[in-house]
Amino acid sequence: MEATATSGLITTEIFEALQQIVGAQYILADQENLQHYGHDETEKLLYLPEVIVKPATTEEVAAIMRLCNLHLIPVTPRGAGTGLSGGALPHLGGVLLSTERLNKIIQIDERNLQVTTEPGVITEVLQDAVKAKGLFYPPDPSSKGSCFIGGNIAENSGGPKAVKYGVVKDYVLNLEVVLPTGDIIWTGANVLKNSTGYNLTQLMVGSEGTLGIVTKIVLKLIPLPKYDLLMLVPFVDLEKASEAVSAIFRAGFTPSALELIEIDALQIVAKMVDSHAVPVTPDIAAHLIIEVDGNNMDVLMSEMEQIAELMATYEGGEVFFADDAQQKAELWKLRRRAAEAVKSVGYTIEEDTVVPRAELPALIRGVKALGKQYNFHAVCYGHAGDGNLHVRIHKEGIPNSYGNEEMTHILRAMFDLVYSLGGTISGEHGIGLIQKKYMDIVFKEANLDIMRGIKKVFDPNNILNAGKIFDSK
Amino acid sequence: MEATATSGLITTEIFEALQQIVGAQYILADQENLQHYGHDETEKLLYLPEVIVKPATTEEVAAIMRLCNLHLIPVTPRGAGTGLSGGALPHLGGVLLSTERLNKIIQIDERNLQVTTEPGVITEVLQDAVKAKGLFYPPDPSSKGSCFIGGNIAENSGGPKAVKYGVVKDYVLNLEVVLPTGDIIWTGANVLKNSTGYNLTQLMVGSEGTLGIVTKIVLKLIPLPKYDLLMLVPFVDLEKASEAVSAIFRAGFTPSALELIEIDALQIVAKMVDSHAVPVTPDIAAHLIIEVDGNNMDVLMSEMEQIAELMATYEGGEVFFADDAQQKAELWKLRRRAAEAVKSVGYTIEEDTVVPRAELPALIRGVKALGKQYNFHAVCYGHAGDGNLHVRIHKEGIPNSYGNEEMTHILRAMFDLVYSLGGTISGEHGIGLIQKKYMDIVFKEANLDIMRGIKKVFDPNNILNAGKIFDSK
């Protein structure tokens, strides 16, 4: 799907004013760049902006917002463009504001276990920088090698470590934000506890670039655990695998990762990355990837043994322990590249379902039943320990759910199921453009009216990432 | 029953309508009750409501709000009245809405490690109920034996365990809320990860009863750690004690509690509860209370020994280990009752300062200097591991800061100091009535305008706990 930038809002005067702000080389409007910045990782969608602007400072961002607010020009903020819900798609044309030049780690505060960073830093770069000081920033989306920390804030990202360490929102202490009007605020303070007025920090986290543009981020860090152990457990029965997930927590364990991957996904990704690390036998339905971490190796070994024994009672097969750093890396690569791999073979539609952990078997059963009913293929993988299951869908001739009536009907059935299990429609990808039409399943109109009201408080002219999360009234 | 009408808004018709909603025995207006519900634990302040209403269901709360919204009657929600910032003070008269009859624990979900509760349950009762199932709800304000979980949500309470386990906001998954208009919403879903629209759950937490009345609460639980160890370390130098706090984290330890208590406070509370558990010698300036918890006793013993050794390098004195449950309880009683004790001897004004952890020595030094400059006594205690220091102030002839010009001047100087250290004015008590005049120190007018705008979205007629956190414009 392609919408071209014919809104014609960027007059010569405005183009020149933008050039004045960021410098001529940091405003782009050539076809190649318009194409590049016109898509993210969401389905097969493409919307061209009119111009791409790359500010390097908070003040430049503020000047852009003041200009666009005055002239009512739509602005779409964008990090690395790895999003899966279309949050960074410039579907209204106008200005695409890229944060890629806001890419400095400003300070690692070892005294207070905090880091202050700009939003355009790659998540893994940030993690490695604090790791070098013996510190740990846990949230690790699958795309950590390419996504930006700013985008992680926008979507309240998770990743495998969330099951023990929480998601992005649990680490954000304070944010510098340029409001749609161009005003600059800090949302909180660089402290571990804060009961000082409404929590604007948490309101910004997960607001998908609709309330303001985050220009500085203060994150809490924790001491880096010394050791981790990783194992892979095969199951012949998918439901048994998902039942085993819940049993681990009920037995008192808190793994640092607890992932589920269906055999179809594992086969596809193993082929793509040419890996033979995992013996993939045809009788296996799914694997659990289980990691524990901590500072005492004996304790971890004992935990791992106990968990392995517990898995056997759920018909878990022969356990594969990752022996060294290389084997661990290989195993994680298989999990992390699953989305990319299955997308490349036609599973272009990804849903980010989340349910209470113990409802995972019912969710998987329901998804498979819907697949039979509506004639689509679904492969499941994800953060089973959090009840957060990614469902990748392939239905012949339908590459996008967005704008497709038949797939919309199917997905409404899926989200009805999710809601009936006590869950909701996004665990970590956000609503963005493509999920907004399902918000009525999980929220009353009163909720959506409150969200619209909040949007208006921040953005009276509805210029910043408008039409994401919900439609304005 | 004696009905008084200070602001005269509760006409006979409205009184009868309220009776219709909750039943005649659950609406009170006699002097004794008006006095009781006219104060909380904040300084020596008293404001009488016109009537006290005690609904028992969400629907009754909604009916009360619809009535009051129609007739523009101020409503002040109240939990157990243990607040320290005046959030529950009915300073505008009108209706005092007590949640004490919303006191059921609805469900402990052992499959998903969650509890659903009404707001009028005493925090410790809730903790004990989940503990009986081997589960753990960590946030434990000093008042846990009397405060309500609903009030904890309103203020985003903390307590000693916050240093390892986080504060209330880190455990709230979903809230049923009656809006000021009488509409009923759920803010989220009962899931561990959620990126579905603006985080209304986190917006409610810490909003001090100004945005809605929480009627049901879904909390995340974790497995209960099997063991804990507790020790008390004396210091002859207050600043050394606070420096030692930061050193513990930098050495890679995360204690489950790390409290500081100045010797004056310890002496006063030991006398009040007639305890001789701790040898209080005159050369000691302060103690650190250090707790570790986990599932492996050998690991904990080793941690405790290493921490004790580290304390010696900061001139820590002879360590007192709590040998058994009784000694632990005795030690915690001394800490938990410190506020009550020092208040009873004239330290009626309590400030809830919070700074980045490593700035604690500078904060204590600054507070003491201000005491000399402005001629007041201050005793300090609190959650040092979080940089959250309670400062109790005694100045002859000034029982309240609220409404006192001289004390307001002093406190502005103190909060200027806090802000200059990167901190803010409340870590866990909230802003309520008495701190709102200091909000300009830590926030721009743009922040406060956003908060006012959000308030208006939820409460267009400004009837619910109006005049708390900020004044309307």
TrEMBL record, chains A, B:
Pfam families: FAD-oxidase_C, FAD_binding_4. Its cofactor is FAD. It comes from the Bacteria. This is FAD-binding oxidoreductase. InterPro entries: FAD-bd_oxidored_4_C (IPR004113), FAD-bd_PCMH (IPR016166), FAD-bd_PCMH-like_sf (IPR036318), FAD-bd_PCMH_sub2 (IPR016169), FAD-linked_Oxase-like_C (IPR016164), FAD-linked_OxidoTrans_Type4 (IPR051914), Oxid_FAD_bind_N (IPR006094), Vanillyl_alc_oxidase_C-sub2 (IPR016171). The keyword Lipid biosynthesis does not apply. PROSITE patterns: FAD_PCMH. Residues 45-224 form the FAD-binding PCMH-type domain. Keywords: FAD, Flavoprotein, Oxidoreductase.
